Amino acid sequence: MGADFRTNANFIVIKLFNIVMDINFRECDPFDLWIWIQFSTVPSIIERQYVEEVLNSWFLLGKLGGFNAENLKVQETGVDLSYMNYDSNLSKDSMMALMHNMGEIEYNGVWSRCWFDLGTSDAFAFDVLINALTQLSEEYVIIEKLIIGGENEDWPVDRDNQEASFADYN
Question: H or E element: which one contains 36?
């Protein structure tokens, strides 16, 4: 295995191993969902910022209704999009699919976690997040594991203080 040298304006990443991010789904309650990320090392400030930008962007798209499977007109058209007739009126007929809430992104050693209330957003939102984190892991910060749903025995959730801390975040 040869080293893979990638440069960025802020630092140089030397990737010695092709680590594939392990993706696991646990029990998923869309109104009470934890997303867990395990890094190969304790993430630096810049690496944390990258992860936070991905999660915040994903949530903002969801809060604006971006993950609405009933309204995928361009995707359903196929490959040739030239001169596509986009009917904006059909969008009004679909049910809203909005994410409702996002907690603070927390770090503990090589772990990061964030709580979400996905509201009525559709499941392909997970595909978008997984694609973004996979590319982030390949280019900027090595993510060993992504866990969607459930709890992490290495880092228990304090359910008593959970709701109070999330109420003021959004």
Answer: strand 33-39
Of 109, 116, 10, residue with least CA distance to 56: 116
Residue 77 confidence (pLDDT): 66
Distance of CA 98 to the CA centre of its chain: 15
- DSSP class per residue in 81-150: -TT----THHHHHSPP----EE---EEETTEEEEEEE-TT--THHHHHHHHHHHHHHHHTS-EEEEEESS
List domains and CATH numbers for the chain.
19-68+94-152+163-170 (3.30.70.600)
Quote the pLDDT of residue 1: 40
Asked whether the beta carbons of 5 and 11 are under 8 A apart, the reply is no
pLDDT band with cut points at 50, 70 and 90 for residue 70: confident
Positive or negative CA dihedral for 36, 107, 118, 79? negative
R_g of the chain, CA atoms, integer Å: 18
User: Whole-angstrom Cα distance, residue 70 to residue 121?
Assistant: 10
Per-residue confidence (pLDDT) for residue 95, from 0 to 100: 76
